[in-house]
Amino acid sequence: xxxxxxxxxxxxxxxxxxxxxxxxxxxxxxxxxxxxxxxxxxxxxxxxxxxxxxxxxxxxxxxxxxxxxxxxxxxxxxxxxxxxxxxxxxxxxxxxxxxxxxxxxxxxxxxxxxxxxxxxxxxxxxxxxxxxxxxxxxxxxxxxxxxxxxxxxxxxxxxxxxxxxxxxxxxxxxxxxxxxxxxxxxxxxxxxxxxxxxxxxxxxxxxxxxxxxxxxxxxxxxxxxxxxxxxxxxxxxxxxxxxxxxxxxxxxxxxxxxxxxxxxxx
Length: 266
Known about the structure:
This protein is mainly beta. The chain has helices at about 30-35, 155-165, 165-170, 210-215; strands at about 5, 40-50, 55-70, 75-85, 90-100, 105-110, 115-125, 130-135, 140-145, 150, 175-180, 185-195, 205-210, 220-225, 230-240, 245-260. The chain contains 4 helices and 16 strands.
């Protein structure tokens, strides 16, 4: 039996505010000691090409993540995704994410104009999550729920994987809670080793629910990562609508054309 890995959230280092002057006699090495830790702004951009399970092109995802390299380790701050029809510049949906409260639990907004649908999820002080969902049938549904350090939200699963990288590469399972925004609740999931010849990556993992009822309702998601910690493939249910009644299930392959100038994992 594999031991469950622990969720480890790495908080960004907090730089101390300084006054507009230095104490008398602080020069040279003393000045260096007062400077903040090494930080540099970076942008990470990548493209995902989504296909049906039968290989039919569905759409493209164009990602741009802004963040910082802090002491040699990547720290995301904001994230924009444009969803385009394959081989065109025609955008049919977009999503923005804000990691300022937590890299695992970002606030986000997803708009799908073709279906008059909008999902707004707001993280308040990393203590409470509010959800405002304007559904494709004209309804408005609102939820509010408390948060804890085991919860991952939307693309936060990707950062969760990297924050538990040593567990991942040692084939240790990692338990966490994953938000189902249309249900207004988070449920138990596990990130664990997997084998599947549809995933063409060095590291293959599966995310699946742990509860018996949810296992009947939700199929596992397959993930492929390279040794740098970059997501290379995603196979499973997405949050984009295929029609009024269902979302796309897609096989998405990612190409990272601009990486941060620091490590993704440690």
